[in-house]
Write a structure and sequence with these properties.
Layout lengths: L3 E5 L2 H5 L7 E6 L15 H11 E11 L3 E2 L2 E2 L2 H11 L3 E10 L15 E8 L10 E3 L6 E7 L7 E7 L3 E3 L3 E4 L15 H10 L5 E4 L6 H9 L2 E6 L2 H13 L8
Parallel strand pairs: 1-14, 2-3, 2-13, 6-12, 13-14
Antiparallel strand pairs: 3-7, 4-5, 6-7, 8-11, 9-10
Helix pairs in contact: 4-5
Length: 256
């Protein structure tokens, strides 16, 4: 059974009360630019530093973010935050893409339709856990011959024959639909996003944190996967929504 702890308050204030090196994984989507309405101003450097303090060595931060168009130009919030996390000590382990299967249409704009958001994978050192999502190989079982560089020298080439495996590690572009939002929260996570990341970067009974809990979808995913969870939310209405949604989630056995 998961240990669920929910805090209503400023994420920096709550993070400062948590033990150092106590969190295995962070899965969150911050209120980037003004695409969501929150009554606070966030010091991103302080936040990144606070997350670095509480994350264990080898722990991972999944940071889902997007950019607003301001005066005809992308804000580059996503890139600025990525560079900031790297500067305070995180590795940029991967830059992943959430491709939306049902994006909102874009009308009369001099650019192609916006269909994705970034999922930056930051790590404190080398990730201690990686349980990759595996997918079927289209050519499973077929033989394949090629030349490749020798590992020992890096220059000479050698001839090798391979049999293509039945499974391979999934790509770093994940496609799933925007959540059908039936709540008062303006940007509900699709449940598949935290489910896949929590499975990938943590193990059963480890601790997952969402400092911008919103409607509580990360907490729901943790309950379904038997992870412990800390959720922080400053908005009282969203906090009550997350509290209710997580409490109402019942899973008798793990999904994975």
């Amino acid at each position: 059974m998961s240990d669920i702890k929910l805090y209503k308050g400023d994420c920096l204030d709550v993070l400062n009360t948590l033990d150092a090196n106590s969190v295995d994984l962070v899965v969150t989507s911050p209120p980037y630019d003004d695409l969501r309405e929150y009554n606070s101003v966030i010091d991103w450097k302080q936040l990144a530093t606070a997350l670095y303090r509480v994350i264990k060595e080898g722990g991972v931060v999944v940071w889902n973010v997007n950019d607003k168009v301001i005066d005809g130009s992308k804000s580059l919030t996503s890139f600025k935050q990525c560079i900031l996390f790297n500067e305070i000590g995180f590795n940029v382990n991967d830059v992943m893409i959430w491709k939306k299967a049902n994006p909102m249409p874009q009308v009369k704009q001099p650019r192609y339709n916006q269909v994705f958001e970034y999922m930056f994978i930051f790590s404190k050192g080398k990730p201690k856990t990686f349980n990759p999502i595996m997918v079927d190989c289209k050519c499973a079982g077929q033989n394949y011959a090629s030349t490749c560089k020798k590992i020992t020298t890096g220059k000479e080439r050698e001839y090798k024959e391979f049999e293509i495996n039945s499974k391979k590690v999934a790509d770093n572009i994940w496609e799933f639909a925007i959540s059908q939002n039936k709540t008062e929260h303006p940007a509900v996570f699709p449940l598949e996003l935290p489910l896949k990341h929590i499975k990938s970067w943590s193990n059963k009974n480890e601790l997952v944190l969402d400092p911008f809990m919103g409607s509580g979808t990360t907490g729901i995913a943790c309950k379904m996967l038997f992870r412990n969870f800390i959720g922080i939310e400053i908005d009282e209405n969203y906090f009550k929504l997350a509290e209710r949604r997580i409490s109402d989630t019942y899973v008798p056995t793990p999904l994975f």
